[in-house]
Structures are given as structure tokens and as C-alpha cells.
Amino acid sequence: MVDICIMWFRQDLRLIDNPALIEANNSGLNVLPVYILDDFNSGNWKIGSASRWWLNESLKKLNSSLNDNLCFMNGDSINCLDKLTDSLNIKSVYFNKCYEPWRIKSDKEIIKKLSNKGIKAYSLSGSLLFEPEAAIKDDGTPYKVFTPFYRKGCLQNSPEPRIPLEVPKNINLYKHKELSIEELNLLPKDDWYKNFENYWSPGESGAREKLNQFLEIGINDYKDGRNFPFKKNVSRLSPHLHHGEISPNTVWYEVKEKSETMDSYRNGDHYLSELGWREFSYNLLYFFSYLPEENLQKKFDNFPWDDNQELLTKWQKGLTGYPIVDAGMRELWKTGYLHNRVRMIVGSFLVKNLLLHWHHGQQWFWDTLLDADLANNSASWQWVSGSGADAAPYFRIFNPITQGEKFDPNGDYIKKYIPELRNLNGKILYAPWEAPENILKSAGIELGKNYPYPVVDLKLSREKALAAFEKLK
After folding, report:
1. Are 240 and 9 a contacting pair, CB within 8 Å?
2. CA atoms within 13 A of residue 333's CA, in its CB half-sphere
3. Do residues 263 and 222 touch, judged by C-beta distance below 8 A?
4. If you average pLDDT over residues 346-355, what whole number do you get?
5. Which of 263, 311, 410, 420 is deepest in the core (most CB within 10 A)?
6. Which residues are bridge partners to 122 per DSSP?
């Protein structure tokens, strides 16, 4: 009987710099690569619709890299691994750590069950630069403020990020089939995702291409240019990082190396600090497992949120009447992605101008973002709402008119996603309702017909939000 070890792929869909895969290969055993779609243990946080499209494409690429040897399974991870260990001569199981609370709970049960069967389980670090247990304060408690977390907890007190590993050579793959990828039924019934393939190339090679593009072009003016949604100064690596098609270690060291050859070191250093924000979000989720459901700042438990489904739907569809908000929400629907500056703008508008609970935004992003990540999504929504760790103060309310004027000064972004406004220029592009009737008519715009009136008054909604916040004191 053939001795086998399982390489259990999860959010590490790559061959390069994959610690668990390296160790599985070093075991000298035949390696059975496995992917389990676990919608059972994930509960409320099963993979969202847009991410399922990405996962489907990424798994195809990974399977191809493994010469069609990837074993697909669907269900409770514990039961699926049980089935494999009962039917095959499995000696050990290798996997990289995940940090979602449900996965941590499930992993503990799996390790215990495997141990009772005499099967060794090896859990390795392949998804973060700094392990949460290492990046803590001197008193042993977790950080709640980003700058000391990153500068002291990570850069000063934690071990240097691991050097990226090569692709293992001559993997002795073992073939065992359970399901086809089609039988995972990953693709959503609503086929709006068909647009995505025009913008994205899921998989390890697509991740490599995105990083190369960023290092060649985007990084050169990253610190300032990243705020302008029409500029090419963001890496757009977030979906690739979330699905583990490229490791943060690979990105970290290549950006670092590039920074040393650039005229402006600050651009590379600033991008590394953005990777630090990703680490901070995971740190918060690890130590405060209630982050996706509950306010970190408990005073917000008493916040008087509105409950207006009509306003929520208009926000989701990009029909608020505020062009920079609507452009963002339409970019999200069309491409599965949203520029970070615009994420802050649309987030602030939802929770402060519409007074709708951040859970609504979190859920919509979870279903429509290709990079939907439990740690980043939850921490970011709590940040913009003022209820999280090191959050933006609640009274900091983004003005969508001035944000549009400042960060989309020529209207390129707005006009790309709201073509009905393409004939408007100057200040009225950011506030069409203020334009004279003859200007709107010549631009082919009829407010309330082909572009909406504003759903709320900015001044009044701001005052209402600040009054609600005052009650918390």
C-alpha cells in the first residue's frame, strides 16, 4: 500500500513560496493535493458570490499546475479529511494556517482527530508576514493602534518576514479523484460575473503579472498617486493575496528590493506599510474574534441607526445622486473591485449620510468584492464607521463633492462609470443638481429620469449624524 501525505490547499492557491507544500514534498511521501469547499463550518461567512467566481478560475489554474491531480471535495472539512484517511494510507496532513475564527476552531478539531488516528498534522505559516502571537505589546496584550503595531510590534519586535521559498522540485503527486470542479457548483446563478474576465486573470501567473506591472509603473508615484482612482498607482493585488496566489512575503521583498533602486524610497516604504494594515486587520480578527459581528468600541452598540431599505438599494446600485459615490458602486458591480480611496468615500456615505449600519456595507462588499476578506472587510468597515480599532473619528465625514473634486479633478473616473454624465464639466459634474437647466438639457441629462436627484441633503444628513453621535457621549 502506498504511503501518502495530504497537501490541503485553502487560501494558498500557489506553488511558489508555499511552506506547507514544501514540507509535504520533503516528507518523502506521495503527495495528494486536496481542496475542500467548506460551506458548512463557515456559517454566515461562506464565500461570497464574486469570490466564488474567482475561486473557480483560480482552482482551474492550480489544478493545471498540478497536472490535473487536485482532489476536489465539498462539505465539512473534518468529515472530508476523515473520509480520505479512512480510505487511503494517509500518514500526515500539511496545511498553511488560516485566521478566520471558524477555521481556527475547525483546525483544532481536525488536528485532535488526526492525532487520535495516529496521523501527524503540520500547520505552517504561509499567509502573513508576522504571526499575531509575535506582534503583541510588551505586556502581552494585542495592539489596537496601527502605528505602534506596525513600527514596534512588527518591524522591531517580530522576526523578519520569512524569505520566499522556491517551487518544490519533483513532487511525487498521488492521484485520487472525488469531485470535478464543476460539481463544486461555485459559479453564482446570476451571471453578472461574466464581466470580470475582461478585467482580471485569476491564478498564480495572473498574480505575478499584476506584481510586475506595479513594480514597473504603479510604485513610482504610489504614496500620492494611490489616492486618485483613475491613476495606475495601486497594485490591484488584493484578490490575489486573499486567495493566496502570491504570498505577502514575495510582495514584501520584491517591493523592498525595488525601493532601494528608486529615486523616491518613500513610495515603496509606504506600500509596505499598507501590507502592514493587512497584518493589522488579521491581528484584530485573531485577538477579537467578534470583529465581524460586534463593535470593537462598545459605545456604538447604542448608536441610533436608520433602517431604510430603499436608501440601501440606491447605494448598492449607484443611484444616490452623488457622482463619486455612484461611480464607485458601479465600478464594484462591473469589475468586482473598488479603489481604496473610493471605498472610504462610499463607506462614509453609507454609515454617516444615510445612517445605515456598517453591517449592510460589510455584507454587500462580502458578496460583490473579488478580494472579500473577513479580516480586512470587517476591520475596514469598523474603521470608517468609527467603531473599530484606531478608527477614523465618527465626526470625520467625507464630503462626496469635495472628495470628487480633489481626487477625480478631471472627472475621468466618474465619466468612465457614469457615462450619462460625460458631457458635464467643472464643478457641476460633482453636483449635477446645482447645474442650470439649460446646461443639463444640452448635456442630455434629465434629473430624476436618466440620473437621480440626491437621496439626502449633505448638510442636513451630516448634522443628523453628528447629533446621533453626540447622544453616545
Report:
1. no
2. 17
3. no
4. 98
5. 311
6. 94
